[in-house]
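Researcher: Please predict.
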Amino acid sequence: NRIYRSPNSIRPGKMSRKKTAPSVAIQRIFIAGILITFLLYSRKTIDPVLPVRLLYLSAFLSLFLLLLWRRDNKSTSTLFNTPLLYTALAGVLLQALSTLWAVNVSEALIQTLKSGLFLILALITVQVIRSGKDRRLLAHSLAVLTILLSFIGICQYYQLGFTEIPGHFIIYGTMVNKNLFASVLVLILPYLLYAAIVHRGSGSILAMAGVIAGSVAIGHAHSRAAWLALIILLILSGFLFIRTLHNTDSEKKIREILRK
């Protein structure tokens, strides 16, 4: 009563997943291109980071969308056929219409452009970063970025270098001011802490090094809002650990809670 199955037969779900799954090369290009944004600045503009980063991000996302379309039309079609897109797009359109009544039209247009870019960035990120291996690659990249930004900021604090980067109120890294610099690190640290716990081997060590470097840089930034956010992060993390230590399979529970 055995059911004969042809060796060439493939389940539809697996076949479609194989066709639409981004390659490792495309994932690396996307992650590297986005992380480069944090390192760009210019001394020739009034705002040393906003214009150059917006122009770069616009050009990079346009080229990357073209790359996705050339690789697989289905990938881009599913990217632009989600309910989240229509909801977010409606918000961007309302923001664009509000520029008609804005006091500062140029500033309103810049904010609308930023919202549109971040919407496209979020959609592409969801499309490219899918599986656990993808998130591991992203965690490694964020750890390297955090260590690099922290190193630049600490060198600025002790006047060891990188002081030629435009900005105010050392330390600021490549983020113009210390509050933005510390805020970026605080937003990255929870993901690195998750990666340090869930991943194994060199990935966990690299993520923990990023957590330590980022925490040291935040301490040197003298940003009270960032300090408060970091303290809340540590308290919540400690609460999760204490809550799961009473269970026999604590490691499994920690991973389940962090994934939620």
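Model: The chain is about 75% helix and 0% strand.
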